[in-house]
Amino acid sequence: MTAAQLGVLCACVxxxxxxxxxxxxxxxxxxLFFSGALFITLAVGVHIAPYFPAASHLIFPSLSPYxxxxxxxxxxxxxxxxHDVSFFPSHAPSxxxxxxxxxxxxxxxxxxxxxxxxxxxLNGSWIIVAGDSQARFFVLALLRLLLEPxxxxxxxxxxxxxxxxxxxxxxxxxxxxxxxxxxxxxNITSVLRQLRSVSRLPELLVxxxxxxxxxxxxxxxxxxxxxxxxxxxxxxxxxxxxSGLVMQPPHMFWLGMPKLMNSMLNTEEKKERLTNVIxxxxxxxxxxxxILTQSGGPFLLLDIGSLSRICGQKCTTDGMHYxxxxxxxxxxxxxxxxxxxxxxRI
Length: 346
Hints:
It is built from 14 helices and ten strands. It is an alpha/beta fold.
């Protein structure tokens, strides 16, 4: 039985049965009977209207903002336009700015969020970012937006300590940020499994891997199997239970692999193993694994591959790590997606 059917049944039992009983005794006084009937009918309408948004819009137009379906901006269709960006030269030599959202429906109100906007959006949040060096650059982009430049300089050395985790609490915004060095998919799967035993889930979880597997394992089929396991662990967080209580699942994002510029890679081993053909086969495994929301999975894609391709060779010096502009753009895409998803959950 659906929630609407249950609501209607309860309303009928609780209200109409007493109404019928009262009507039996008040049948000699028709004015009193019809007054009571009108009052009870209105009471029923108020109680069951929330279960029927279309009807409530007609009956109670002043209340329709609360009962109606999500406004156009909350539509998931807006998400498909988030990566439609382009880059153009800035006034500084050899530098590029971000031109956001080239084409979009008029009702998808995308915007480039400022430090104060992000501080308000992420206020009190626990954020986990798990992945390889690409994820570390994404964390740097987030910290650039949350912190003053002077504060960022002091912590950048710790953030980029080789193959290590990084943790920070930003008291001004009440943001707790954990970067977990997780170069392989199995590392991310372990992180997700450990979250099953915590008393509080993070509000935001960003993960991404593939380059290390491509370099050290170089087997797309094995990568696909690892992603399948990761998908199951991620899906288990969608409706988590702890001590019998349901916890709000985190917003989950997947960092896609950057476009590789093979001729610019800095070792012969990388040039041999990180080819465009292998890169494309790994990207296909991500699509086929079911981890992305477009395939029914828990992760919304932050397509570093398309963003790095748009920015091009001018945005990288080693063929695999890109300038901050790429990760800052991915961050703004995530923040706008958060606005959409957050309003959908209201």
